[in-house]
Specification:
- The chain is mainly α.
- Helices cover 75% and strands 0% of the residues.
- It contains 18 helices and no strands.
- Helix 2 packs parallel to helix 12, helix 3 crosses helix 5 and helix 14 packs antiparallel against helix 18.
- The two termini are 42 Å apart.
Amino acid sequence: MLALAIFVATLILVIWQPRGLGIGWSALAGAAVALATGVVGWGDVGTVWEIVWDATFTFVALIVISLVLDEAGFFGWAALHVARWGGGNGRRLFPLVVLLGAAIAAVFANDGAALLLTPIVLAILLRLDFPPAGALAFVVACGFVADTTSLPLVVSNLVNIVTANFFDVSFGRYAAIMVPVNLVSLAATLLVLWAYFRRDIPATYDVGRLEAPGSAIRDPAVFRAAFLLLGLLLVAYFVTGPLGVPIAYLTGAAALILVAVAGRWFSGGRGAVIDLARVLRGAPWQIVLFSIGMYLVVYGLGNAGLTDIAAGILRWLADRGTLIATVGTGLVVAALASVMNNMPATLVGALAIDRADVAPLTRELMVYANVIGNDLGPKFTPIGSLATLLWLHVLAGKGQRITWGQYMRVGLVLTPPVLLATLVALWVWLPLVPSP
């Protein structure tokens, strides 16, 4: 009960953020209480750090890359191209925006897609004079697709990185399994979003109101460097995956190179366009503190018996066949993520799978079902992921307020069919992929 009370109190502080208290400080406070009361020991600190450090710094590096590219106009340029490809047809534009969100989520992680693309799309919709209901459809689509299509690569979601590191899954193995599964999730996402919002999407819009895509580019040097750098980074992930090179090293190196280009370090800073100090201040440094703090608190829950309970549930599911094991694991962790946040839920699921004594194929299905459940499950509620809470905050700052009730009415309708379709796709596809 003490471990549960510490977790609940920590989660409340993380969500509430009284007086602007950073999520990292709240999580560290919870960890300090857990240490002081003996819920976790000092030896657990090293164990947790080993689990989270690579994922945490990879995430920070990806967000730094995303912020620099956003300042350079990269995402605005892409969004304006997509708006022009719509050709004045709102019902053509809608799936194109969803596809753009999926592409950004795959490369820049779900947080980048939700937090950077949404304001840009909203600005374009305002320029096109979309009615409120139509604008809401596009905005919700941006937030929804950011998570539901954050499956394909290890770097597409912090959940993916933690899981791949915990179970020693290579970048290539992960992609071979999850890229096809992500395509099913994307197709299901398009279908449910279209079914839900089709009456709100304007039939036409005036393309003439849009600026030329090139006008969005504010730093041509960074813009040009982005294509080569991102291509090389993706290749490096696959090449170095079998060698066990931490992806934080690769992503961090790419972030440093892009920052050097933006800051014109090779020319003493002359000609720099981007305010790097402001960009770096906006990086999610609090996530470093949050990762170690919240995971320590959750580790305390595991020490108190939660992991054993969860492992027992997984063994029960495994006894009923691989389909039930896959779908059941995904649904259980999705429900857990929706009420306790997907980051702690990821660790609970991983520890439980590691402890459950199940057949190798069932175990691997559960590993990826844990990813799917924690990537998609947060869409049930606003507290399911920090990205969603930040997304709602960004929208509020732009004058687009979405209440928790409004969010959940949409999330509870849209999420279940996408989650179920994706889990079934995993169950069908994974046994067909040759073992490493």
